[in-house]
Design a protein that fits this description.
This protein has 448 residues and is α/β, with parallel strands linked by helices. The chain folds into two domains: 216 residues, Rossmann fold, CATH 3.40.50; 172 residues, Glucose-6-phosphate isomerase like protein, domain 1 (Rossmann fold, 3-Layer(aba) Sandwich). Helix content is 47%, strand content 13%. It has 18 helices and ten strands. Strands 1-10-9-7-8 form a five-stranded mixed beta sheet, with helices on both faces. Helix 5 links the parallel strand 2 and strand 3. Helix 4 packs across helix 10. The longest helix is centred in the last third of the chain and has 22 residues. Bound molecules: 5-phosphoarabinonic acid. 5-phosphoarabinonic acid (PA5) binds next to loops.
């Protein structure tokens, strides 16, 4: 079985190999702090050996629940935000047909997402769409109090109980939350919902391989055992005892920290495959929330190429030189499309006749890499043999492990997110939430 592979050859014009290898000792210290739980945020290291510790019984419970939901429902709404949403969505979008939502004859239930914004229009349209559907809900919130998710769930639950009756609704709702704390746990116990636990020591953005990600992915019809097997295999490839030169998480963490030191403040995650769009959203949260603190941190952004070459390509080629790219390249697509010959050749494309579309895509990828490196954009490349559950699991664990090391190299706690509270405090004060009376007075004074 192959592994995903990392190539940093195209950063050597900007930073030297020796400088990167100079990180070896520091990286080792960071990786052992993760392993021994002696670094910042060590209460949240449950993700580190999660893939290799999931038991057969846990898989079976997830698969059994998924089967029940699949039998009962043509649509499943997954309510959650941030780490309680992006992992599942990134995997489901990567493996679903691009035209999935248009299909009427379905093998798998349609998976819709809610609770990831406060858009009234979205919720109204969702409600309208669900009116004629047998739907179920997977409600995901670790704290159990997140406004976006709780609001969506209140609306969805009310609608489902009206459409299907309270007893049937109870069979079609699953809650994924803390083992004992929070409003969602209380509600689930009271209503008798099937529940799964988000472990205390796994933060939201590291939770894709807990029921948070695994249940929705299983309901969507994808192989969670393979996803976790891929991650477990990467656990070994990125383990503490693997030498620096052979450890992709170590090399990636060192390279991006050195690039940052040299003024490359923005990392662009690039794909040439739009199915990876939401994977990039997951990655952005992972790195953004983990590293953006104490006035430090690489700003993670993403583009879908070649689409965005026609919008952002100009900036990347010639804008301020504070960026570098990390390209996810898929070696072999799952489908095969050969370009036909056209006798008229009015579009001038006969030079491509007989070639696969992917050959064109690969040359676009290579051409872009050369152009961007010429334009002073260092390039990191991660190749995945093919887009399937095993390799996506590998990719996710690789980025998680590198993120832990990278955050420690930067000197921050990669496992908290104190900055996320600021907007919530203001919003609650403005909405006059009980308990926010003082803040409410202050904010009104500030706005008057
Ligand atoms: O990574 C995180 O911790 C956050 O993104 C949370 O996942 C997000 O805020 C949702 O929180 P909760 O699961 O408590 O509703």
């Amino acid at each position: 079985m192959k592994n995903i592979s990392l190539s940093i050859n195209k950063v050597f014009g900007f930073i030297s190999k020796e400088t990167i290898y100079g990180y070896e000792e520091k990286v080792k210290e960071c990786a052992s702090a993760l392993e021994k739980g002696t670094g910042k945020g060590s209460d949240f290291l449950g993700w580190l050996h999660l893939p290799s510790s999931i038991s057969d019984a846990e898989f079976t419970e997830l698969e059994t629940t998924a089967k029940l939901l699949r039998e009962k429902c043509e649509v499943i709404v997954v309510a959650g935000i941030g780490g309680s949403y992006l992992g599942a969505r990134s995997v489901i979008e990567a493996f679903s047909s691009s035209f999935n939502w248009l299909q009427t004859e379905r093998k798998n239930p349609a998976i819709l997402f809610a609770g990831n914004s406060i858009s009234e229009d979205y919720l109204a349209e969702l409600s309208e769409f669900l009116k004629t559907k047998h739907f179920g809900i997977i409600n995901i919130s670790k704290s159990g109090t997140t406004t976006e998710t709780a609001l969506a769930f209140r609306l969805l639950k009310t609608q489902l109980e009206k459409q299907a009756g309270k007893d049937e609704a109870r069979q079609r709702i699953v809650a994924i939350t803390d083992a004992s704390k929070g409003a969602l746990r209380t509600l689930a116990t009271q209503e008798g919902y099937k529940t799964f636990v988000i472990p205390d020591n796994v933060g939201g953005r590291f939770s894709v391989l807990t029921p948070v990600g695994l249940l929705p992915i299983a309901v969507a019809g994808f192989n969670i055992r393979q996803l976790v097997a891929g991650a477990a295999s990467m656990e070994k490839v990125c383990a503490l005892d693997v030498p620096f030169a052979e450890n992709p998480a170590a090399i990636y963490a060192a390279t991006r920290n050195e690039l940052y030191k040299q003024g490359k403040k923005i990392e662009i995650l690039v794909n040439f495959h739009p199915k990876l769009h939401y994977f990039a959203e997951w990655w952005k949260q992972l790195y953004g929330e983990s590293e953006g603190k104490e006035n430090k941190g690489i700003y993670p952004v993403s583009v879908d190429f070649t689409t965005d070459l026609h919008s952002m390509g100009q900036w990347i080629q010639e804008g301020e030189r504070i960026i570098y790219e990390t390209v996810i390249s898929i070696a072999e697509p799952n489908e095969k499309v050969v370009i036909p010959t056209d006798n008229e050749n009015l579009d001038g494309l006969n030079f491509l006749s007989g070639k696969r579309v992917d050959e064109v895509n690969k040359m676009a990828e290579l051409g872009t890499q050369l152009a961007h490196v010429d334009g002073n954009v260092p390039n990191i490349r991660v190749e995945i043999p093919k887009l399937d559950e095993f390799y996506l699991g590998q990719l996710m664990y690789f980025f998680e492990k590198a993120c832990g090391i990278s955050g420690y190299l930067l000197g921050v706690n990669p496992f908290d997110q104190p900055g996320v509270e600021a907007y919530k405090k203001n919003m609650f004060a403005l909405l006059e939430k009980p308990g926010y009376e003082e803040a409410s007075k202050e904010i009104k004074k500030r706005l008057s």
